[in-house]
Design brief:
The structure is a homotetramer of 346-residue chains.
Chain A lengths: L3 E6 L4 H11 L4 E7 L8 H4 L11 E2 L1 H7 L2 E4 L6 H10 L3 E4 L9 H8 L6 H6 L1 E2 L2 H8 L4 E3 L4 H14 L8 E7 L14 H4 L4 E2 L7 H13 L5 E7 L6 E8 L6 H11 L6 E3 L17 E8 L4 E8 L3 H16 L15
Parallel strand pairs in A: 1-2, 1-4, 2-3, 4-5, 5-7, 6-7, 8-10, 12-13
Antiparallel strand pairs in A: 8-11, 9-10, 11-14, 13-14
Helix pairs in contact in A: 1-12, 8-10
EC number (chains A, B, C, D): 1.2.1.38
Function (chains A, B, C, D): Catalyzes the NADPH-dependent reduction of N-acetyl-5-glutamyl phosphate to yield N-acetyl-L-glutamate 5-semialdehyde.
GO molecular function (chains A, B, C, D): N-acetyl-gamma-glutamyl-phosphate reductase activity; NAD binding; NADP+ binding
Amino acid sequence: MNRVKVGIVGATGYAGVELCRLIMGHPQAELSAISSVSFEGKTLSEVYPAYFHMCDMICGTQEQVLEKSEVIFAALPHGLSQELAAQCVKAGKAFTDLGADFRLESEEEYKEWYGGSFTDKALHQEAVYGLPELFRERIRGKRLIANPGCYTTAVPLALAPALEAGLIQPEGIIADCKSGVTGAGRKPTQGNHYPELNEGFTAYKVAAHRHTPEMEQTLSHIAGQKIKLTFVPHLLPINRGILATCYAKLAPGAELAAIRKAYENRYAGEFFIRLLPDGQCANVKNVRCTNFCDISLFADSRTGTFIAVSAIDNMVKGAAGQAIQNMNLALGIDETAGLKLVPPAF
Amino acid sequence: MNRVKVGIVGATGYAGVELCRLIMGHPQAELSAISSVSFEGKTLSEVYPAYFHMCDMICGTQEQVLEKSEVIFAALPHGLSQELAAQCVKAGKAFTDLGADFRLESEEEYKEWYGGSFTDKALHQEAVYGLPELFRERIRGKRLIANPGCYTTAVPLALAPALEAGLIQPEGIIADCKSGVTGAGRKPTQGNHYPELNEGFTAYKVAAHRHTPEMEQTLSHIAGQKIKLTFVPHLLPINRGILATCYAKLAPGAELAAIRKAYENRYAGEFFIRLLPDGQCANVKNVRCTNFCDISLFADSRTGTFIAVSAIDNMVKGAAGQAIQNMNLALGIDETAGLKLVPPAF
Amino acid sequence: MNRVKVGIVGATGYAGVELCRLIMGHPQAELSAISSVSFEGKTLSEVYPAYFHMCDMICGTQEQVLEKSEVIFAALPHGLSQELAAQCVKAGKAFTDLGADFRLESEEEYKEWYGGSFTDKALHQEAVYGLPELFRERIRGKRLIANPGCYTTAVPLALAPALEAGLIQPEGIIADCKSGVTGAGRKPTQGNHYPELNEGFTAYKVAAHRHTPEMEQTLSHIAGQKIKLTFVPHLLPINRGILATCYAKLAPGAELAAIRKAYENRYAGEFFIRLLPDGQCANVKNVRCTNFCDISLFADSRTGTFIAVSAIDNMVKGAAGQAIQNMNLALGIDETAGLKLVPPAF
Amino acid sequence: MNRVKVGIVGATGYAGVELCRLIMGHPQAELSAISSVSFEGKTLSEVYPAYFHMCDMICGTQEQVLEKSEVIFAALPHGLSQELAAQCVKAGKAFTDLGADFRLESEEEYKEWYGGSFTDKALHQEAVYGLPELFRERIRGKRLIANPGCYTTAVPLALAPALEAGLIQPEGIIADCKSGVTGAGRKPTQGNHYPELNEGFTAYKVAAHRHTPEMEQTLSHIAGQKIKLTFVPHLLPINRGILATCYAKLAPGAELAAIRKAYENRYAGEFFIRLLPDGQCANVKNVRCTNFCDISLFADSRTGTFIAVSAIDNMVKGAAGQAIQNMNLALGIDETAGLKLVPPAF
């Protein structure tokens, strides 16, 4: 069988290079071309010496990626994907956007949180939101996929079964999330300069992060009613991973055992969801470099509060890995192809 | 003026050695004696080479500490302080317990969460809970002080003014806390072995941590009614610091500006409380090695949620520093003596 | 083709679990059985939750591993492998020791540095030292392999071509090495307790580390004369990796260009050796989770000193990866099978 | 007594803010003014929120610092201090340069390594090199001080007594140094972006670092003959500290006991030098936030090599602390004033 030719636009950012890593190990795909505005003309291994002799492909232009590839992934700053998506669709290429341009269904919300507008409304209609464990059937065979953000994968996966089953109350949900630094991108900033971040810990964009409406959109679909939540992200002094600690009021009469059963049923057969045994808590360490989402469930009977803690690798299940899972699903390949990643234990 | 002779029982644990550090820099106190069960006969600098030529005092016995000191601090595992406290009181020494033995007023709660009982009820009656910013007047002149735990300092200080002013609802409070590793003590464990913790992050004792009833006790005093809260601690791969992200429902009509005003009034003149400017978030980095508690206030108007984020150094304001603040207060010394610590910026 | 049945004795230490990880991803081998004295009866994923649903194999006994496997790897504390090796050889199994029991050819040196003796001298005669890039032909087809230590891989690979070509002087060699913490094992110790190691850095066993005679043995074979060197290891606050900074006097008239040529020739075709371009320095980050040894060459013409800096992952090329490379070589499988590991870029 | 008015030019860099921290705690000095090109008009606490309510002084101009201060410290990029020094001298102010402009005695070497020239040769004649433990008498009463760099403090202090006593050979000295990240400054760079540095380790400027001629100058003065050495710096993923592992050939007949004696004599009474007991190795952790230089001595009798390992805090003894030590010495204040810093143990 021929391998699928996969091209990556924006290959030298953290999500981009993680896509390269995963495609290099994918049995049914091959890296056909990569582009980078910042490093055009350089090899990937000049930018990331870890790939010396493993991937010395030269970063070209967006146009070259389009020409040489059947499937295109874009890992670009928000706002730059709409035009590229249109070109891909016109040229008959499959396109997955790892940015936020196609994630929100409501143009109004997009304007409010991102400050832009939908340049081609038909295109937005065509796009499908790629969170396979919640919306698998809609993704199959699709050509234009909006890949979810990192927080927006961890939080909905942690809450969906309880919400869907009516075992938690739809109001008053809180998502207290902690992310590794790669989520903030590769561009050096004062805040992520090593001595400033190391041995520090803080929250940022408190109740004001752009992923808020995206989580609400997903959870509203699941709940069948409008969900609002309070979302506070924090920055961890580690490279990879998101831990989402999610709080909701238990529905009257709901107990942890029933909730657990709902998760077992909802996620039965899901390779990438690992529902942890009672008493064990999800840890970002255990999902590093993998496409897993580990989920642990707790209840505080003293206060009637349900607590779900999920962990993902923000760059894999929260970005590149999920994009490939979506690609597999869209192309009819085994959904886990290239993603049964054996994690390092330390 | 003669310096107060201060002795430390359990000087080689993290809280104990931090007490040594602070007493060494205190203008009106001096280290009179130290004890350690694990390192009896060794110098402090053999245990902590940072103190070579700075404090080469030999670790003796508890008895020696009692004999040589006017004020005794005990940094012992829970359960070991009751007898020592009785001895100190009998010998006319001032005693501060950094453990949990005298923190809870209710023996029933003590039994439930710690599994022990009050061996001398009169002694427990005498003990005062040492959180100066909330209970200053009760502490003055006292001889037996229960020094609060780390989480139990960070959370009540973050919430008290809003709760006291009726600007948040007393039900449904959530405290999502993140602590540096020193909070778990100096004894090596598998979980805190460097390669296991490094690049990891998880929650522990979810809704089951012993500090829960202590926070509730403090907040109930402040609110004038029984408060229950949901408390989830997490372990950060850093040495020092606690960040407490606290959530509460806004009272009807309450707005952030009014809440801010309540904090400004409540904490006016408090040297160790720094209420941060709007938009800036508390960071454990900024309070390292100091006795400060930084507090930042936010509201999520979309969901009617109040969010207070506080940061302390778990070993200073969360342990040794607060113990000295209490000592100063009890002895009638300037409350900030030895505690105007200039923090390292990085 | 049937997969080779590989068993691991001591599977729950860091080298052992890394062997499990690599065998799980090996196309021509399968994990047949694992043992652990500390965790007998537990699954690998109970010990390392990262493997939940990926390897839930139960830790059995050494005997069970022998019975179920064709190839046995032992990752045991020094001194425990000699008897096991004898059993394996007797039972017709291939055996690789990741400990030090069979590494030294001289029983005298073994006594001096390890304090033990060779219990079966014939067995020691049979054992081959498994550093493929230097001794490949001796390893092919062998059944009893002594897998080199971590420092003893990084240092000889960094120096061998220059020494062999007579371009550096054989006297006065210095190896200043820095290792990640996993090299010290999984057992919690005071020194590797997170708060003690974090933000610290020191040397240990200065000029007294057991890997010294092993390096000298390898370099003496290469040089054709007895080599002695000064070896100082340091402990880095990172999980994985060794950086070896090696110093030697340039031979009269030797220049960097000629030395570089010697390395290019000596390591031509070596998949796992990456000779870095001029001016670029090896970094442990770039070899993490891979079997690569990155080497960079420098000369200080002001002082006539040659400097070679090599980087390996101490748990892969320095332990488990090299063991599998040796297995492949011994069994006649493609030497890189299971070892073309795509590294994470961050 | 009036406190000395101390001004800091370049106060918002890491060395500058560390000067602020130390002056804030100095009993005989006070911070009179600070300047910053990047943050003019902002308070120090806006740049470093750790100083909120501790130092809310506004960053002004260089001119304002001159006007308001008796003693001026400049922590500027190399090349910018010569003119400022001239202004200070002219205005009768004491001036200490924490940069490299006045460190090298040879203009030729300055040109070779820094690319600039001495604009005012008389001024360079006037400048004294401020390494008190080696050149104390020259510093007393001086008004223009060149404060040594970080590596150039750690290496000479580690080697001077042995070299001076003729117990090591003057040829073939190697300094393998490892520095925390603050040494590279506060400006964000790709290499010091958190995810790039974290879990990595490498050497840089191998045998080509600008501190080389400065170390050689100091050691040549001590040895009374021209010394050349090989210097390789490495970058540690920690915030503070330098560990210098220095190698030299033992002089014929020299033994460790005699060398130790030479260090004890040479450094007798030096408060900031801590000669560690036999067998204990210097660790950057033990000198954090202090002005100590810890030194440990070893000999490799197998190869005739002397090994001295020293540790300093690169921002204190390697920059700001030493600058204040020099100021104290120059002004006739107790040399340890403001510098008896009690270190945190963790």
